């Protein structure tokens, strides 16, 4: 991959270890002459204290014209960059590193926060320091430093192991498609939230957080269903979630399995399921049969027909709704055949691709 310490000049290019906009970029825009001034002015609650502030001091010192600002984000033209390193000293946050020009894997985060939920709320591109990339790297090229992952390019061979294992899917991989390199995808355990959305809009409520607080039973709607507002949509960096007829729906082909949507849902309706063909029950209502039937025509009524007829014993009841164990499900059609309400879904997705098999073969 190259030696970042010994390779001179054009063998190196600049890389900014930050991809987000959470360090006050919008607030600082047009107010300061240098990044150092912006940093010195301080950050406010909810902002990343370790990220790029977007003023562009690095752009100003680049003699090659290899850096430019686009919507507050510094973009590097790798063809123009000659590896001089002038930009490194211009960044008060220490975000710019010189890396081999032939590098293919990048971790664009320098966050030092050790709280996963805080990181997820602050920035969609934030490293949560879970260590999965470090443990999976066959070359020992990835390590956790100050609560974020760092690649040692002297050891990195450009395989896809860290990309596959990254829980947040923030590792930039120029060789492999993140939409294919994943073990799990998000799934919304509801298929009939339209009534909740309509009732909330009548009350002037337009956010999931506020909708989750209403007395659903008193309003005659499902107590556990999707609110139909875009908290999960806004959290998704890959345009993999949309609200259709009042209910959030995930496109498994676009989803990369980062889990940001699971943290964004106040009702905890979104779960992660294996990226393979299997059957899924889009309901987690804990109400009794009569209440479910009254408010939703796509709710699991806990009749247990699917449980009794599953040839592998892959289905069980939990809090008055059916749950399918992905480890036991062989994607047969028996549960769908016997389900009297026709609510069980079939997840049709591609087989694991060759690169993913290679990355996971030693696990």
Word description of this protein:
With 363 residues, the protein is α+β, with helices and mostly antiparallel strands. The chain has 16 helices and 16 strands. A two-stranded antiparallel sheet has the order 1-4. The radius of gyration is 24 Å and the shape is globular. The N terminus is likely disordered.
What structural class do helix, strand and pairing data support?
A: alpha+beta
Total DSSP E strands: 16
Spatial sequence of strands, sheet with the most strands: 1-4
Radius of gyration equals 24 Å
Identify the quaternary structure here.
Answer: single chain
* Poorly predicted sequence stretches spanning 5 or more consecutive residues: 1-9
- Proportion of residues in helical segments: 10-25%
Q: How does CATH name the architecture of the domain at 9-173?
A: 2-Layer Sandwich
Beta content comes to 15-25%
Whole-Å distance between the termini?
24 Å
User: The CATH topology of the domain at 9-173 is what?
Assistant: Alpha-Beta Plaits
Mean pLDDT: 90
Morphology call: globular
Number of helices: 16
| Biggest sheet details | 2 strands, antiparallel
- CATH class term of the domain at 9-173: Alpha Beta
Secondary-structure blueprint:
Layout: E1 12-16, H1 25-28, H2 35-41, H3 57-61, E2 67-70, E3 73-76, H4 86-90, E4 96-100, E5 105-106, H5 116-122, H6 132-136, E6 142-145, E7 148-151, H7 161-165, E8 172-173, E9 184-188, H8 194-202, H9 208-211, H10 216-219, H11 231-235, E10 241-244, E11 247-250, H12 260-264, E12 270-274, E13 278-280, H13 289-295, H14 305-309, E14 315-318, E15 321-324, H15 334-338, E16 345-347, H16 354-360
């Amino acid at each position: 991959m190259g030696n970042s310490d010994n390779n001179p000049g054009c063998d190196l290019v600049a890389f900014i270890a930050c991809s987000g906009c959470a360090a006050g970029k919008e607030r600082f825009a047009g107010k300061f002459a240098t990044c150092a001034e912006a940093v010195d002015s301080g950050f406010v609650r909810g902002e990343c204290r370790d990220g790029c502030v977007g003023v562009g001091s690095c752009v100003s010192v680049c003699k090659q014209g290899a850096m430019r600002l686009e919507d507050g984000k510094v973009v590097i033209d790798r063809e123009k960059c000659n590896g001089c390193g002038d930009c490194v000293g211009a960044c008060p946050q220490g975000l710019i590193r010189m890396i081999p020009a032939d590098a293919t894997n990048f971790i664009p985060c320098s966050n030092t926060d050790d709280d996963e939920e805080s990181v997820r709320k602050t920035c969609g591109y934030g490293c949560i320091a879970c260590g999965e990339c470090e443990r999976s790297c066959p070359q020992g090229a990835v390590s956790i430093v100050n609560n974020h992952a760092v690649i040692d390019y002297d050891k990195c061979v450009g395989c896809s192991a860290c990309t596959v294992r990254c829980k947040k899917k923030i590792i930039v991989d120029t060789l492999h498609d993140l939409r294919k390199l994943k073990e799990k995808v998000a799934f919304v355990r509801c298929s009939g939230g339209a009534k909740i959305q309509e009732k909330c809009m009548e009350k002037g409520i337009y956010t999931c957080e506020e909708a989750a607080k209403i007395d659903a039973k008193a309003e005659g709607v499902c107590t556990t269903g999707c609110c139909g507002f875009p908290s999960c949509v806004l959290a998704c960096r890959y345009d993999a979630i949309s609200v259709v007829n009042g209910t959030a729906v995930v496109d498994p082909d676009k989803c990369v399995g980062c889990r940001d949507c699971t943290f964004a849902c106040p009702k905890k309706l979104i779960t992660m399921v294996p990226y393979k063909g299997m059957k899924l029950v889009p309901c987690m209502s804990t109400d009794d049969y009569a209440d479910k039937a009254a408010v939703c025509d796509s709710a699991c009524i806990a009749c247990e027909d699917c449980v009794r007829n599953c040839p592998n014993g892959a289905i069980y009841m939990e809090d008055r709704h059916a749950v399918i164990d992905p480890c036991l499900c062989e994607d047969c059609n028996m549960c769908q055949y016997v389900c009297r309400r026709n609510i069980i879904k079939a997840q049709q997705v591609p087989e694991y691709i060759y690169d993913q098999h290679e990355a996971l073969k030693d696990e």
